[in-house]
Amino acid sequence: MRSVSEIDAPLSDWTLAASIGLNTNILEINLINLILVVGILFYYGKGVLINFLDNRERTILNTIRDAEERHEEATKKLQKARIRLQQAKVKADEIRINGLTQMDREQRDLVDAADKDLKGFEDSKNFAIRFEKQRAIEQVRQQVSRLASERALEGLNSRLDNQLHLRVIDYHIDLFRALRNKSD
């Protein structure tokens, strides 16, 4: 009897069987294993990878769209702010011009009022001076009249004697008679 190990097989089959076995070259094995793993992953993971990349693309596109919308909104807000700033500058210029105009008008009014008051004071002063001048002139007249009357009275009293007094009376009586005769 023969043993199992002693099976009759052709010699060429034994050489083939001797070549099947474990390959101990690590570089060749890793490359083969890597290609097999990548191939399996690509075949079965292609759908997951495509879905992941599609989701990532949509996320990026949404982010870009949101950024563009925010940029557009910010640009509009900036434009509105610039318009409001320009309007505020115009309003500030108007207020400044109105303030300067009002200040000039009030200054002119104040100067006019001061001139009017000064003219009033000047007129009042001139009136007071004229009044005082007329009063002084009147006082001087009264004093001159009084002094002239006193001097004339003194002169008459000193020159008037009884005989002159009688002649003046006779003159006036004759004058009275002449007037009376003319009227009859």
From TrEMBL:
Gene Ontology terms, cellular component aspect? chloroplast thylakoid membrane; proton-transporting ATP synthase complex
Q: Name one Pfam family in it.
A: ATP-synt_B
Bilayer topology term: Single-pass membrane protein
- List where this protein forms a coiled coil: 57-98
UniProt keywords, alphabetically? ATP synthesis, CF(0), Chloroplast, Coiled coil, Hydrogen ion transport, Ion transport, Membrane, Plastid, Thylakoid, Transmembrane, Transmembrane helix, Transport
What compartments host this protein?
Membrane; Plastid, Chloroplast thylakoid membrane
Signal peptide range equals none
Sequence intervals crossing the membrane: 31-53
What GO molecular functions are on record for this protein? proton-transporting ATP synthase activity, rotational mechanism
> What is noted besides the main data?
In plastids the F-type ATPase is also known as CF(1)CF(0).
The similarity annotation says: Belongs to the ATPase B chain family.
Q: How is the quaternary structure described?
A: F-type ATPases have 2 components, F(1) - the catalytic core - and F(0) - the membrane proton channel. F(1) has five subunits: alpha(3), beta(3), gamma(1), delta(1), epsilon(1). F(0) has four main subunits: a(1), b(1), b'(1) and c(10-14). The alpha and beta chains form an alternating ring which encloses part of the gamma chain. F(1) is attached to F(0) by a central stalk formed by the gamma and epsilon chains, while a peripheral stalk is formed by the delta, b and b' chains.
Main function: Component of the F(0) channel, it forms part of the peripheral stalk, linking F(1) to F(0).
Protein name in the entry: ATP synthase subunit b, chloroplastic
State the organism of origin: Christella appendiculata
Q: Which gene encodes it?
A: atpF
